[in-house]
Amino acid sequence: MKKIILTGDRPTGQLHIGHFCGALKNRVALQDKYDTYIMIADVQALTDNFNNPQKVRKNVYEVAMDNLAVGIDPKKSTIFIQSLIPEIAELTIFFSNLVTIARLKRNPTVKEEIQQKKDLFKDDVTFGFLGYPVSQAADIAIFQADLVPVGADQLPMIEQAREIVRKFNHIYGDVLKEPEAKIGDFPRVLGMDGRKMGKSLGNSITFTDSEEEIKNKIKAALTDEIGGKNLLGLFEQFSDDHETIKKFNTQFKNKSIKYSELKPLLADVIIQTLKPIREKRAYYEKNPKIVEKILFDGTKKARQLAKQTLKKVKEKMFIDYFKKTI
Ligand code: TRP
User: Is there a single domain that holds both residue 73 and residue 103?
Assistant: First the structure.
């Protein structure tokens, strides 16, 4: 039996090269060795987009196409939609008894996100948003995942999921698996403005950007200490020309690096890498029925596994009242 991977994306915008370096490359490489489940986390996306459901709806397809375009193979990986697995919502309720409000408020990722979302939450926060780590723990546990490949910002989420699973097993008996995180090799990609590269910050390079757009974005990228280091890091991610990488690294260290030289080379390797991805994505854009079928079949398969786990959970919790399903 292969080990299980569960990972997910919030459908709030197109994925970009930050996701590519931090999570997607990893995901594609791992799908041969693991039974891979990729969740399109629409329920989680609604926690901070509850007032914009059309945006979430539209991006379910965008995120599915991004995954397929970078090389996720629906024969090897199961792509599915979170809201169609009600077992996750049920497990979330049971898990919510095992977490305190104070612990949720201490989660560094949630803490940072609440700060960033002052416009939405004012000086408070919703029950749903504060509790999304609980729901994410249920995402992972319901599939009995061994491994969760994510960007570095997600580490506190996995840590909290492990705590919840441990507590569940301790109280009700050993039934759930404690997951482990796996971080991509360039986890903190910054946007072209030196801030975190974000789906909704307008500072990213996406898989649908034209060559012209990629060139212009890199041309305009910041080259201060942090921005420059980021460009060099990106070059290392996308280029396999070790000599040139080494040269730029040395120049960076002794501060003689010329970004007018690095930038066109970086634009070039990114364009080369993204070209087949953009072409594959264009195929799915023209064939939404194919994407729909992949999501439908994937969701059906994922739901079977979720049902099995929830059944075991309910037995352990003594809430398995009838043998027959109602
Ligand atoms: N929180 C993740 C993100 O913002 C998305 C996500 C939802 C996820 N459920 C998950 C990631 C389960 C890993 C496992 O990127």
Answer: yes
Separation of CA 208 and ligand 1 centre (Å): 23
Counting atoms of ligand 1 from 1, which one is nearest the CA of 136?
9
Cα–Cα distance, 79 to 32 (Å, whole number): 15
Tokens coding 273: 């890498």
pTM of the model: 0.94
Q: Which residue has the higher pLDDT, 151 or 207?
A: 207
Assess whether the C-beta atom of 25 lies below 6 angstroms from ligand 1. no
User: Is 103 found in the same domain as 120?
Assistant: yes
pLDDT in tens, 232-272: 999 999 999 999 999 999 999 999 999 999 999 999 999 99
Please report whether residue 202 resides in a domain.
Answer: no
Q: Give domain status of residue 172, yes or no.
A: yes
Q: What residue numbers bound the domain in which 54 lies?
A: 4-186+288-316
Total domains, the chain: 2
| Residue 215 to residues 40, 41, 205, 237, 258, Cα–Cα distance (Å) | 30, 32, 10, 17, 17
36 within 8 A of 5, measured Cβ to Cβ: yes
Tell which atom from ligand 1 comes closest to the C-alpha of 151. 15
Among protein residues, the one with the nearest Cα to ligand 1's atom 10 is 8
188 to 117, 123, 158: CA distances (angstroms):
21, 28, 17
Atom of ligand 1 lying closest to residue 9 CA = 5
User: What is the CA(122)–ligand 1 centre distance, in A?
Assistant: 24
**Biggest distance spanned by C-alpha atoms of the chain:** 73
Long-range Cβ contacts of 239-247 (<8 Å, 24+ apart): 239/265, 239/266, 239/269
Identify the CA nearest to 97 among candidates 177, 44, 47, 171: 171
Any atom of ligand 1 within 6 Å of the Cβ of 150: yes
CA of 125 to the centre of ligand 1 (A): 19
Query: Does the CB atom of residue 8 touch ligand 1 within 6 A?
Result: yes
Q: Which residues pair with 4 in a beta bridge?
A: 35
